Amino acid sequence: MSLSLTSTVTLNNGVKMPSLGLGTFQSPRGETTRDAVRWALV
Fold first, then answer.
1. What is the dihedral of CA 41, 27, 17, 1, to 10 degrees?
2. pLDDT tens, per residue, the chain with 42 residues
3. In whole angstroms, what separates CA 9 from the centre of its chain?
């Protein structure tokens, strides 16, 4: 199995969920969050 940034997993209810999660769901918009994502992807 190969993974990419667009890889998903299909849940039991048929919903597709991304395999990669950066934990930014409730992070505020702005430079700090943007920088954190950039560092995570480097």
1. 20
2. 688 889 999 999 999 999 988 888 899 999 999 999 999 888
3. 12
